[in-house]
């Protein structure tokens, strides 16, 4: 199956819209919250917020590596290995579908 390309304008517009919505929500929530000097105020985080707050502690995320790759992309020196990408996509699809890799 061939997957069609998505225009960068559509993708950029969707991302910009999401960012504006998030910014508006955070601005609204910060403005509507009254200041409270009561130290007994409790805040309860959703499971998603808790998971996100611990994401930076995940050892599988390497910020330095992300920065190196981003710089290589900006410099135009980032090389892409289509074979490796295809292999990992197939492996991921097999994992998601619950199939094991065929034995050779």
Question: Could you list some keywords that capture this structure?
Answer:
104 residues; mainly alpha; 4 helices
Name the beta content range.
Answer: under 5%
End-to-end distance? 25 Å
Backbone shape:
extended
Continuous helix count: 4
Tell me about the largest β-sheet: none
Number of strands: 0
Question: Rg, please?
Answer: 21 Å
Helix and strand pattern: HHHH
Protein name: Negative regulator of flagellin synthesis
Keywords: Bacterial flagellum biogenesis, Cell projection, Cilium, Flagellum, Repressor, Transcription, Transcription regulation
Family: Belongs to the FlgM family.
What would you note in describing this structure?
This is Negative regulator of flagellin synthesis. It comes from Scleromatobacter humisilvae. Pfam families: FlgM. By secondary structure, this protein is mainly α. The protein has a domain of 38 residues. It is built from four helices and no strands. It is extended and about 60 Å long. The mean pLDDT is 76.
